[in-house]
Amino acid sequence: MGTDKSSELLPGTLDLLVLKSLARGRMHGYGIAQHLKTISEDVLQVGESSLYPALQRLLLNGYVEAEWGISENNRRARYYTLTALGRKQLSAERKEFDRMVLAIQKVLA
Amino acid sequence: MKLFRRLRYWLGARQNQADLAEEIEFHRAMGGAMGNTTIAREDSRAVWIWPWLESVMQDVRYALRNLRAHPGFTSVAILALGCAIGLNTSLFTVFNAIAIRPWPIADPGRVVNIFELDDRLRTFGFSLEEFRYLAAHSKTISGVVAIGNGQKVRIDDGKAVASSVSGSFFSVLGIGMQQGRGFRADEDLVDAPQPVVVLSYVFWQTRMGSDPSAIGKQLRIEDTPFTIVGVTGSDFTGNSAQVFDLYIPISARSIIEPHTTWMKDYLHSPNYCCTNIAGRLAPGVSRAQAEAELAVLHQQFRAQNHDESHGVRLTGTAFLNTGKSEKILPVFALMSLAVFLVLLLACANVGNLLLARAAARQHEISVRLSLGANRARIVRQLLTESLVLACTAGVVGVAIAFWLPSLVFRYAVNDNLSFRLVPDSVVLMYALALSAATCIIFGLAPSLHATRPGGIRSRFSLRSVLLTAQVALSVVLLVGAGLMTRGVQRARTQDPGFTISGVSIAQFDLPASSYDAARSRAFFAQLSRDLARQPVGLTRLAPLGNGQNWTSFRLPNETEKQGKTVAVQEINRGYLDVLGIPILEGRMLEDADSNRSVVLINQTLANRFFDGNALGKSVVAGKPYAPHEIVGIVKDAYTTTLDEVSPTIYFPISGDSIPLALFRTTPGTADAIAGVAKQIDARTGTTFTPLTVNLDKYLQASRAGAAIAEGLGGFALALATIGMFGVFAYCVEQRTKEIGIRMALGARPVEVIRLVLGSSSRAVFIGLLLGFAAAAAASQLLRKLLFGLSPFDPVSYTMVVVLLVAAGLGATFLPARRATKIDPMSALRCE
């Protein structure tokens, strides 16, 4: 599953980042990748080979839903939206992540 | 929920993968190419499969390890379930062969059997004249074929079974040929029949040594040379239960039987019924459309011949559609019921074994539960174990189904039958479904039970329920077996009303083509004269020979509409003498009676239609259909079937054709009869059959049925015994410590045994009661197969009680002995 090292993210954080991106509203896969890139000022560059498995994982767990729509440049694109379950998962993962970062910072301090 | 989403994904797998590909393509088109799209696709797909598959594999591996660790349990469970699934699959294999599989021909789904109906909606065949009418006028049927009955014929070097078929048979049905061709339409013209013959593949192989140049050679059939024009392909096993060696054109029957009196009617008369016909539906025509059209044609034809019609019916070509279903389906239903009970019994048995194992694994299960495994996960794991068991048993079952049906058929049925009793894909699907279903039946309750929060409470006893069920089911099966066995025994030993042992039948075998009525009469007269010194019975139907003739009769003052159907026999005086059937009133037949209009009737007929006062009265019957005087009343004899006597009229035998001769088997008689026959005509062959052989043949199917029932009963008994043993042994095991304490405190062995067996004995007892109640109800279904034995036959029931008590004692002996041999000290110490 997660053999892709290029994202150089902490394990499990990609799902969190995707969920967070979708919290703003519905987006297609490319949009999510662009969003992550822009917000992180080009630090987080997510490739297809990690983004799409992540999206499928979220679909499987019922955190997101997908539907086909028309993109800004008039092409068919698949849009993802957060479900209620996904929202709950987001806040849970968010808390867990904060706790982890805090702990790591304490160790490094 | 997750499982549901996964399932939905897999149901739409193709669409989902297309979506994914398009999505990634979109991503690249937008300029986001970063990395390998194939990996992206595969990893995405793997999300849906891998973890799940892996955990299933894990469960299967765990289950296999567990089963291997308990070889005793595993082998008993697989054997019990395997046999039960095997029995069910075997029965289904037979059902498939006779009720589902169509004829082995090209595109069989478009071929239908066509029947006409009578006023009671029974199906019959058509007259050949009407067959030709339908073939000429139907637009919805692209080709019609007529199929005559098989008949034994003399050929070059012996005998063969020939089927007569219309000239369209091979071409319309699309039967593949190994060599040569099928018939042409112009070879089956009634006015110019051609002596051509098509050989079946098996006949060609076994009787002609697979002769590669068979085509064009001659084969003599009833002394007429026929030209071999074709050999059917090896996959054409025939379109009837009977195995046919040869096919000849229907009209060629007049070549081999030139003197058969009814042949002209058969070939020409619009009223001579009962040739089976079949047709291939024209392209785009539904069965209903064809049926509607044929009904109209049938009505037209009947109207032209001043007769009424009751419609037609089209059916598929599986064997069961050809008018045999009324006889066969009830037998099938009974057997299905029996093997289904066996399956339930095996499930109850294995379920109980699983329960005992679950109890032994209580510790393991509670550890896993308390470590946080959820209940569904553990149930799934236990069910996987059941599924592995069931699938292994399914494999065993299919293996059984490969040889059991043909073995039983060989034992139960005399004739060689053309059914292909080998499981095909339909049967395999059935076995798979059955295995899955059994897994749920025997596995679900124990696994739910074992994982109940709070552990197994010993007060509620699923075990007792299952034990009760096992005993009850085995009682039903054993009672059935007992009744069938006793029924056949009764049929063999009861007085049939005529002498069987010491009587033989002589059958004279002359070439049919060389005997017309006049020569038959001469042969007949000489035979009667030469054999006059000893009683020789002459008749057309061998006793218990599987044949019966019917005739219509009425009283002189009744109209023809009031005619009644009764059995008819042609006999001479010697027939009653040899078979020892006494005359109750009136007189015997005399030789001179063959020219008088007199008949004998049997008791049943006299009582049913004359209130017992029949002597001297007249009946209108026979050929010519005229009044005949009743000169004697004969005691009832079960000469046709052993379960009932039909009202019967006995006519003095006519000399029109060669009869069968019945005689007492005394030294020299057979030779004398054969000698007389040879004297009359040197070509006459004579075969002798003792009546006991007929009796054995007659009872063969019933005896096979009884043997099957005994087999099922024995299997049921074994399962129930294992089941009881398992439960008792488990009880002792579980209460070792308690027993130890009690014995240390001075309990006597009897008390210990009572303690151990108490609760389970109650389950057994309730099972017996329920079983007998169910058996009493179910045995009503067997009534027709019991030859008059009462379904409440006390001997059968007593036998079952004795058997089960013996089995129960056997099953309790070891556990009870163990219980009393428990050493109090070691029992206490082992905790």
Biggest chain-to-chain interface with counts: A-B, 33 and 31 residues
Protein structure class of chain A: alpha+beta
Mean pLDDT of chain A: 85
Shape of chain A: globular
List unreliable stretches of 5+ residues of chain B. none
Based on Cα principal axes, name the global outline of chain B.
globular
Major β-sheet of chain B, in short?
11 strands, mixed
- Give the oligomeric state: heterodimer
Q: What is the helix tally of chain B? A: 24
Cα-atom radius of gyration of chain B: 35 Å
CATH topology of chain A: Arc Repressor Mutant, subunit A
Reported for the largest beta sheet of chain A, the result is: 3 strands, antiparallel
Q: What would you call the structural class of chain B?
A: alpha+beta
Share of residues in helices of chain A:
55-70%
What do these coordinates show?
The complex is a heterodimer of chains A (109) and B (831). Chain A is an alpha+beta fold and 109 residues long. Chain A has a single domain, classed as Winged helix-like DNA-binding domain superfamily/Winged helix DNA-binding domain (Arc Repressor Mutant, subunit A), CATH 1.10.10.10. Chain A is 55% helix and 15% strand. Chain A has four helices and three strands; from the N terminus they run H-E-H-H-E-E-H. In chain A, strands 1-3-2 form a three-stranded antiparallel sheet. In chain A, helix 1 packs across helix 4. Chain A is globular. Mean pLDDT of chain A is 85; it is low at 1-7. Chain B is an alpha+beta fold and 831 residues long. Chain B has four domains: 2-66, no CATH class; 108-317, no CATH class; 326-492 and 698-829, no CATH class; 511-683, no CATH class. In chain B, strands 1, 2, 3, 4, 5, 8, 9, 10, 11, 12 and 13 form an eleven-stranded mixed sheet that branches. In chain B, strands 16, 17, 18, 19, 20, 21 and 22 form a seven-stranded mixed sheet that branches. In chain B, a hairpin with a 2-residue loop joins strand 9 and strand 10 (224-232). In chain B, helix 15 (462-493) packs across helix 22 (749-778). Chain B starts with a helix and ends with a helix. The interface between A and B is medium-sized, with 33 and 31 residues.
